[in-house]
Specification:
Blueprint: E1 3-11, E2 15-18, E3 24-27, E4 30-38, H1 42-50, H2 59-64, E5 69-77, H3 82-92, E6 95-97, E7 112-115, E8 126-127
Antiparallel strand pairs: 1-4, 1-5, 2-3, 4-7, 5-8, 6-7
């Protein structure tokens, strides 16, 4: 399957994380939404994000390596890569961007946002079965 996905991540306490080339970032306790895409093997990409043991490569890997950060739900949409930035823009209208996070290959402000809840996404995306 190919498409875009949103990881809903709960950060259980305030943390400060070294996010590779992005440097140190503070993450307040709360809920976050991370937008990504996989134009092949979306399920494999999500499984990689869920693993604790992995090479730290993407910005999201650094956050998810922290024991206080846990994926609580995965949403997806079968769509081409252009929907990744469209979805990030939409989430940005409902959340607070973490500047520069996950968007080094595009012009978006961020692909990670602190959000109050993810209900606004449920009309356009669906839960990825087996991952929530």
């Amino acid at each position: 399957m190919k498409g875009i996905y949103v990881l809903i991540i709960r950060v259980s306490k305030d943390i400060n994380v070294n996010v590779g080339a992005l440097g140190r970032k503070n993450f307040a306790k709360g809920l976050y939404a991370y937008v990504g895409s996989a134009q092949t093997n979306l399920e494999q990409r999500v499984k990689r994000h869920l693993r604790r043991e992995k090479r730290l490569f993407w910005h999201i890997d650094y956050l998810l390596a922290n024991e206080a950060a846990k994926i609580t739900q995965v949403l997806f949409k079968q769509a081409d890569k252009t929907w990744e930035c469209k979805t990030a823009t939409r989430i940005g209208e409902n959340g607070t961007p973490i500047a520069g996070f996950g968007c080094s290959d595009c012009r978006c402000r961020s692909h990670l946002f602190r959000i109050g809840d993810c209900k606004f996404l449920l009309g356009s995306m669906q839960p990825l079965s087996g991952f929530s």
